[in-house]
Design brief:
335 residues; alpha/beta; Helicase, Ruva Protein, domain 3; Rossmann fold; Arc Repressor Mutant, subunit A; 3 domains; 3-stranded antiparallel β-sheet; 52% helix; globular; DNA-binding
DNA sequence: GGTCCACAGGAAGCCTTGGAGT
DNA sequence: ACTCCAAGGCTTCCTGTGGACC
């Protein structure tokens, strides 16, 4: 017994024909995407990627979409750009300048989207942006970030001055907007009258992140005997959050997942605020039990920062005092 | 005011991978 | 087949931090 007729509209990846509540942003994107550099910024789950992808689909120029969470160095991003432009796999081993030379031959009238740019900046600096924004037949670049509000603070002055993006800000969804979107998706996806209004209201009043909201409603619908009730929604809250974090972690390494698991264990065991050193210790213990391979604390420290950027954990930095220089970390209950 | 805390995070170097030249 | 080169992943080493405590 299931209330789902077609699960597609409830999937986060689904791009509906009509997008609710983002008319202004959509227009800005449509008007500017192909003619000038853009910086799209806003918290997670506000529809940035979604709308940019839709704008790409409607663009007349060629487009490249790079997810910098997966391709977090200049080199890897260049490989992706070239591979999308030439429609062929590009292996490693070439000199960066060789990739750049080949891209320059092809990059005419191209729009390049760099999603999750924070991760590339964190890992490899701004060389990629500098290079792309100074190309002779300059492609237009759209950078999407969740953590970096003001790129002029993160980029070298010389990079920012040639990049000069127009900023498009995405505000968090309001409860009413989340409600409206969920209701629309539920109507397309589920049997009629199979969702209680209170159930949707509860989700909409708990989270401003549409990605979480959709995961939540979808999970509830999959569990429902014949109706999605508020009780059911409340009951599966934790499970839905876990599913959301799993999808966020799936693009990262097993070490990231072991690290996250270590923090989860420690916060379950008592203190919900944990010190970095304790997490490293637990990570080492768990990783060596799993397959023996453990990474250094230095490396894991970088991974911890990535989890912070994904908004999965919250870190408070101490630069002195009785605790010394450390981070106090807690799980982020995504809202 | 000197020492300690408990790491953060930069720099340098090692190892592996894969293309290019001979 | 061999050597050379460049890139990323990772480790090792090291310096810096600033309030608490003596």
């Amino acid at each position: 017994m299931t209330v789902i007729e077609d699960v597609t509209p409830l999937k986060q990846s689904h791009l509906p024909e009509k997008i609710i509540d983002r008319e202004q942003e959509q227009q800005l994107l449509h008007k500017n995407l192909e003619v000038r550099n853009l910086h799209v910024h806003g918290p997670r789950g506000t529809g940035k990627t979604h709308l940019v992808k839709k704008a790409i689909g409607e663009a007349e120029t060629r487009t490249c979409y790079i997810n910098c969470l997966k391709h977090d160095t200049q080199y890897k991003a260049l490989q992706q750009i070239l591979s999308q432009l030439s429609q062929a796999e590009v292996k490693s081993g070439y000199h960066t300048s060789e990739l750049q030379r080949r891209i320059e031959k092809q990059a005419l009238d191209t729009t390049i989207v760099l999603d999750e740019l924070d991760f590339l900046l964190l890992n490899d600096g701004d060389d990629l942006i500098y290079y792309l924004s100074r190309l002779e037949n300059t492609p237009t670049i759209t950078a999407i970030t969740s953590n970096t509000e003001d790129l002029s603070e993160e980029l070298e002055p010389r990079t920012y001055s040639s990049f000069q993006p127009r900023q498009i800000q995405f505000e968090p969804y309001t409860g009413e907007q989340i409600y409206e979107i969920l209701a629309d998706r539920a109507w397309k996806s589920l049997e009629s009258r199979s969702v209680h209004r209170n159930a949707v209201t509860y989700i909409a009043s708990t989270t401003q992140n549409i990605e979480i909201a959709l995961t939540w409603l979808r999970t509830a619908a999959q569990k429902a005997e014949d109706t999605v009730t508020e009780d059911l929604v409340q009951e599966i809250k934790e499970e839905a959050f876990e599913l959301y974090t799993e999808t966020k972690l799936q693009h990262l390494s097993q070490h990231h997942r072991t690290l996250y698991q270590a923090l989860k264990e420690l916060s379950k065991e008592g203190d919900h605020v944990v010190q970095a050193g304790d997490i490293y210790q637990r990570y080492r213990k768990n990783a060596s039990r799993q397959d023996g391979e453990t990474l250094s604390d230095r490396r894991i420290s970088d991974f911890l920062k990535q989890l912070e950027h994904l908004n999965l954990i919250e870190a408070k930095y101490h630069y002195g005092g009785r605790k010394g220089k450390t981070r106090e970390i807690q799980l982020n209950k995504p809202t």
